[in-house]
Amino acid sequence: MIIKTSRFGEVECQEEHIFRFVEGPLGFSEAKNFIILNHPGNAVFKWLQSTDNPELAFVVAEPFYFFPDYAFDLEDNDVKVLGIQDREKVLVYTIILIPGDPKKITTNLKAPVIVNGENRKGKQVVLLDERYSTKHYIFPQETQD
Amino acid sequence: MLALTRKVGQSIVIGDRIEITVVEVKGDQIRLGIKAPKEVSIYRKEIYDEIQAENQAAADLLGLSPNDLDGVLSEAVEVTKKHTKKI
User: Fold this and answer.
1) Could you tell me which of A72, A111, B51, B84 has the fewest CB atoms within 10 Å of its CB?
2) pTM above 0.90, yes or no
3) Of B45, B18, B47, B46, which is closest to residue B34 (Cα–Cα)?
């Protein structure tokens, strides 16, 4: 099938590659179907592109790449709604916020996007863990100069 | 907004499937118990608002012209490469 995107134009995609969100990302509850597209020429950033709304897309990344110690417990309820049986099949992405200065890119570790590769269900969950906030710099911030 | 008066131990029911009970009142703090189906997410409003705003800001990226966004992203990619060499 063909997905329309405002950024990449028309994208060919297999029906079975679409992630079905239990509920859309917070503030976008109607957006329930997404695909993950690679960012051309870059293995770190990906696009979480809505298949319903060509204009809705988020830049995401695998947070463990920048934060090797990032860890959290999913609430039982989220484990149930996502139908998670095998944790090895679970993918975690966090949404990236890109300001004018790329060195100041932040990511939202408080509300990761969890997708279950086994049944392709997804959800943005909110962690109770106080260590994580909605804005973590992904690059070390230089204090000199 | 509908306002209802309840005592500790009393509840309100929203639709068929959501029940909210006043568990405890201590000074100006009220502890609520919530029964809801597992598909219904429950958030503290300030956290919900914060994440919604963050999502909105991230989605607004596409409001940048494609050229500007490409510039920022390629620069981000370069910065990523520089930093990941150190890892």
Assistant:
1) B84
2) no
3) B18
pLDDT tens digits, B35-62 = 999 888 899 999 999 999 999 999 987 5
Cβ–Cβ below 8 Å for B47 and A80: no
* Partner residue opposite A45 with nearest CB, options B41, B47, B73: B73
Give the chain B residue nearest A109 (alpha carbons). Answer: B51
Domains and CATH numbers, chain A: 2-136 (2.30.290.10)
Q: Do A44 and B39 touch (CB under 8 A)?
A: no
Residues 6+ apart with CB under 8 A from A3: A10, A11, A12, A13, A35, A49, A51, A54
Tell if the CB–CB gap between A95 and B72 is shorter than 8 Å.
no
Q: In a structure prediction context, what are the per-residue pLDDT tens digits for chain A, which is 145 residues long?
A: 898 888 888 988 888 899 999 999 999 989 999 999 988 777 788 999 999 999 899 999 999 988 989 999 999 999 999 999 999 999 999 999 988 777 788 999 999 999 999 999 999 999 988 999 999 998 877 765 5
Count Cβ atoms within 10 A of the Cβ of residue B40 and give its class: 0-12 exposed, 13-18 middle, 19 or more buried.
middle
